[in-house]
Structures
1.
Amino acid sequence: MIIPAIDLIDGNVVRLYQGRYDNSTEYNVSALSLRNQYAEQGATWLHLVDLAGAKDAQQRQLNLLQQLMTASPINIQVGGGVRSEQDVIDLLQAGASRVVIGSLAIRKPALVRQWLQKYGSDKIVLALDVAINEQGEKTLPSHGWIEQSSVTLEQVLTDYITAGAKHVLCTDISKDGTLTGSNVSLYKELTAAYPQIQWQASGGIGQLDDIKALIGSGVAGVILGRSLLEGKFSLTEAIQCWQNG
């Protein structure tokens, strides 16, 4: 499945480079019109990220998120700054089909495992973003890519799978926003090791060949951000590429 992404800061559609707030690009398009455009082009899911809320809980854009999710023509998974159970409740009540949990999944795994069991594995997406070090270890920065940690992807996955985790969005941070291609070998390794997970690949897609490269990797979904915003190809072309693979 191809999943277009919309990242938001102060109501504006933006993209960060490798997760860095000091290296962002703003696009002159409204999030609502972009949502509708993606729906018309065949998307069945949309990935929404509240980057302002991710950085500062006081800056959460809940009103905008509600506008985008209310009576939406497509399913929406939304994340960015989910820090409490009330945040999960607010987003689900606002119309989210799934809530994406990022850094909290690393910092408070016991709490997030409780949410998985309470709300169901189809309502929660774990965003486990990796920084691959020189030893090849997949370490997980613990706070929105800002703080490094020594925790590895494999260490946290085992307990989450036991708790019923089903959806994991995995980004190779070094690829994010670069348009230089996806880390195909990473996803092949993960889908082989953890076939019970519906993996979402994110980061690096710059051309249709990058989508083709992920066909057969085992991933269930491919997140597209900057490549669509910069017109590298259309969403329709991306969906056709994935389906025809």
2.
Amino acid sequence: MTFVAILAIGTVWPFGMQRLLTETAAVQTLLNTFLGGIILLVSIVVSINSIVLSYDIISIGAQEDRHRGTVEFRREIGHLTDTDHSTMDPASFLTMMVGVINQRSHELATVTEELDGEAAEEVREHTETIRQTIENIEQSVAETGGGEFSALWLGLDLDLGPLMDRSRVLHLEYADELSASGEDRFERLIRAFEIITTGRHFFKTLYYKREFSMLSRTLLIVSLPAILVTASTILAINANILPQIWIFGLSPLLTFVAAAFTTALAPFIILTAYMLRVATVTLRATDTEPFVL
């Protein structure tokens, strides 16, 4: 788009653009700024990525504790589904957990037999709200086709916080009227909400690690050619050694400078694309925080 935009401006405003490119030092000044910015940008991003990756540089004891926590989490998920294994990719995890929540909401609906009047009606309305939410989630999962980012986005977009909080409120409010079995059904449903929340937020952490690693790798690959092209362009303009190849009737100088500017901007465009994705995911993942703006 940058390349096309510069060519379009040069085509619409040919004489002014030609004068700007040949009679001023603005082009060299901008390219010098881009050259320094690319080098600084790579240094900053690699430093940030080093901080992110430092999460994995820990002692053997910490590694063991982390592994033990992972095994315990997987084991609990297996208990939820009465299987010996658990699937941990976003789409399978989301599908599995909404099924568990749906099942436990049906189990909770039987608690209304132990309650009277308004209490039974509140629990009945709550379980119906859960089932409607689960049906919408299952339909959305089917529509995504199991894509990794689509499933992650759907998981982060779930509004499960109010349902979990409402379950806790009803459990505490009517605890004295419930049998041990009724209390257990409330606790099982709340625990299912907690597990799906923990799991989907850990997927967010994995997504951040992957995005920053890919950003660093992509910038390192793109920045070296960008530095070489930008430096060569500055030297070529300074020495007045420019290509004389006409492409589709466009001025050689205009085409050359447009290509140079596009190459110099490539690292910044890549950074912008990655940061927009990460920032968007972050904004959609705050529903379980203690306070929400």
3.
Amino acid sequence: MIEELKITIECEDGFKLSGKLFKPQKISSAVMIAPATGIKKEFYASFAYYLAENGFATLTFDNRGIGESKGDNINSSNASLTNWGKLDMTAALEYLKAEIPNTDYHLIGHSAGGQLVGLMKNAREIKSMFNFGSSSGSLQNATYPFKLKSSFWLNFYIPVSNLFFGHTKSQWVGMGEPLPKNVGKEWTKWCNGKGYVKVDLDTKITEHLYNELDLNTLWVHAKDDDIANYANVEDMISVHPHIKSTILTLSPADYGYKDIGHMKFFSKRKKELWSLATNWLNENE
């Protein structure tokens, strides 16, 4: 039996995040699922339940400005990619530690969720990290025609939407939840450079753990993912000089799928892929 608990996570600055804890009767270790940009926790519910069925207490949550953590006014939100890592992901792990003490803690990151780990103040307490679709997302490594589409999104749509609406209307173009303006600003800046968050490290962002983390990591991406292509996965890994990393490239045809892309790993229709995560977690107990 899996206990599903709706929870509230309080961050260092007092902001409260909405989360959910999937708790098995017998716990082998604990997992925090860090979401992609603008993606709500419900997207990961089936995957989180699967992890719990396999003995892993699993926490999902909405970053500030997103879903049930939206707050009163998106246009006055202090949400940013930096604060998602520094405040929200840090608080989520602290909650997991308090609720499931005396065990190992692992991070499963989807896209931004794996990119921002070095901003967590408590990242040293993570034993291993399994990422899907996490990369620098650099335009410089993108290929055409996706490069044109991505450039339009980052360099025109985001700034224009922020100017007229005070936030990014991501939902209008099928890019998840509406995004607070500073999320969009950092996304644009970082993806136009190399190494994503590396663009601001040691200048705007002076406190981080990217240079210190040495955890064991697996970076899974799909061959048909235009964002997290192999070059961009390598680019993101390069921001962590001391981690132990392995890249696994999935070909949809190998599994009889038409596509996997940037999002569909977490779909119930791709459930046979999920053992990649549980195998990794079991190997890193």
4.
Amino acid sequence: MSKHDHHPTNATIESQYEEYVMPIWKSLDVPLERATGCTVQDFDGNEYLDVFSGIAVTNAGHRNERVVEAAKDQLDEFVHGCSYVHPNQPVADLAERLSEVTPGDLQKSFFCNSGTEAVEGAIKLARKYTGSKEVLAVEMGFHGRTLGSLALTGNRAYKAGMAPTINDVAHIQPPYGYRCQSCDGGPCTNACATNVERVIDSHTAGDLAAIVVEPVMGEGGIIVPPQGWLAELEAVAHEHDALLIADEVQSGYGRTGSFWAVDHFEAEPDIVTQAKGIANGLPLGAFTASAEVADTFQAGDHLSTFGGNPVACAAALATIAELEDGLIDNAADQGAWLAERLDELEARFDVVGETRGLGLMQGVELVDTSETGPQGVGPAPDSTLAKHVSRNLRERGIVMGVGGFHTNVMRIQPPLSISRTQLERAIDGLEAAIEAER
């Protein structure tokens, strides 16, 4: 059924998905027809406040005017020529901008189409540069679903029926103080970081190429490491002649109130992977490294037909401009207010085990205090309550994500353009939904 035949409804769209789309979609029950700023509208005319941003993608807001105009202008010039066959200005300009905004001396970028591609490309580059093969990742981390990055993803739920993935990957303990035996449920300490050497000694062959880490873990449940944790990983990586790869696919582009999540910590990664918020919804990914590391790649070592699409790169340049013109500052300001308000929820409700995050990347962990959590640490995760709270929020006209290793964390990741009034509405709704469903 074409939308030009007559106006579709939510039911007709969902029916088409059921019949023609592979059964992997996980509906929030909000089919999308139009979106502007922080508001989305379904095919039945219902409007919702979006505090999930399509999984932390539309950082500059839905249909941001500056981004849309940049994409339209490039569409009038040309759409594709393969950026690695036909050098063009949007790609060149974006690569230069990334050398300016990425941490440390990162200078050269490779452009692809998604976060999982960026992670896989970064692993290839690290292996080529170091001459080593083994990779460390973090338990509960998420780095993508293609077979290479899936090996790094530390969650069996994503791997069931998909093995084997690539070899030579081991996992270290996450900085998850709330459910950490080493930290006894308190604030996470660097005990989690010192555990890395034990894993290297026990589970590798002494051929380490990289340690891959999300500076703030997204799918794992918005887990923020303690100060010193990333610096310790950087030191360990370099002691083993390996590289530190910061996966900023979800946490980058202003999400945490700084351009990069790693900016909050005293560490400088050797490679940064990017996607999601980079082009405000257009498909684009990248990984950026120092010239010394990047120049290890020779012609033909890596390529992407659609990588660095000029329309997406033009949108990315406009996105960066929007972020630097006030959206990152807004994320920091609103995030500070949000953290205080979530602390109040934690104090009020026993079912709110912990609230945590940076900027506009915040999580609310819902628990069942009548049962003990995994390994006897903390109360049991309550994924059922999270599901019910999410549904209750939709009935109130609010879209909020659910995630975490135990699928019990409410994820608050709105467009960075969100106003205080909109954010207050979202948290008032969350409070009411928890009260109604607990």
